[in-house]
Amino acid sequence: MSLYANIFRLGDGLIQKKGEPSGLYKTNPIIVGNNGSFPIKRVMFEDEFESLLSQFQEYEWAILNGVTYWGRNNLAASQSKMCAMIFDLDGVTEKTLGSFMDGVSAGYYPQPNFITLSGHGVHLYYVFEQPISLYPNIKTQLKQLKYALTRVIWNERTSTDKNVQCQGINQGYRIVGGKTKIEGVAVRAFEVDSHPITLDYLNEFVDEKSKIDTSKLYRDSKTSLAEAREKWPQWYERRIVNKEPPGTWKAPRRVYEWWKTQIFDSAVYGHRYYCLMALAIFAIKCDIKEEELRKDAFSFVKMLNDLHPEDPFLESDVESALDCFDERYITFPRVSLEALTGIPIPENKRNHQDRYTHLQADHWEIDGETVENPCKKNREESLRKAREEGRITGRPKGSGSKEYAVKDYFAEHPDSSSRKAAEALGISPTTVQKWRP
């Protein structure tokens, strides 16, 4: 229990208790086992953790990993936080394990917090100082980091098995105290270092292209829903009460088509995953259907694999990248996509105008095509809703005086044109048309 208490911060309220009210956004690890007849899956609630662990220790096999999940399924799409990164190292003998520990002492390999004897191999547990939120783009980077670290840890000195097994972050491992493949032998755990690790520490052991830029990780908000309701009542009403989607700007299809061309022309080894991750994000921005996206994404497999056949680009890598086909990433920053893919993504042009003038315009000229300014449309819609909901009351500032000025002008100049009236009154022709008798 001390191993799992360390990983999942048992007693600190990180994971949910049985019957704990919703709205706290807590998630839980999920255990899977087989009692001899069929597989069983259970959510590991904090107050039931020890009793469930004891129950599954008696099964034919039982596995658990260092990840927590939303809901009751340990699917990649349901992952919430990674509390520990765990590695499998097979083909271990007394000599190879000694070689690994000598390498740890010499600084060649990262020092694990726990090592478990799982039968014919070992599992290495690296417990994070702070659990890592598994946003789709972060999951892809974590997988690459884990693959790279596996190749560092698993070599001819540390294992007699030459078949290096790179496993994803969703992989489960035999539970401590549970049965192994060796009759009568249970999984045993040993604590090596009580001090938790960071991604920066793991980054030290891999090449530059496999490192994670920790400065760009998404940070979880520490604001509770109750506090958010007080600070941002309009947002709370729209997003939480009415469950409306996040506001954003949609892009035209040509942006999606442009990005496919960029992949063909500019994708390089080391950025392959991120190019398809960006394709999924552009698909969300451009209202592309998932069926079309998947067809396009898988069509790149051979081309991306040919960039570096020694490190195959697989269909499973495509599936991982497509996790970003998610509305939460519709506002993913352009500069972040540039950094991840290594491909320049130009800013939208303002037609040589300052930002204020550009945003106030009724229409924009884009690639020779006139399109309606989405900013103005969104602003007008927001004002309309605010008036309907009573958050803004009364007439717009100055509207009454302009109405009277227009009517008074035409009372004296009934044959005047709207253009002349606008010039005489110093207001827009649109306002004149609105209030002209």
From TrEMBL:
Biased composition, class Polar residues, residue ranges: 428-437
Annotated region (Disordered), positions in chain: 378-437
Compositionally biased spans, kind Basic and acidic residues: 378-392, 404-422
Protein name: Replication protein
Species in which this protein is naturally found: Gordonibacter faecis
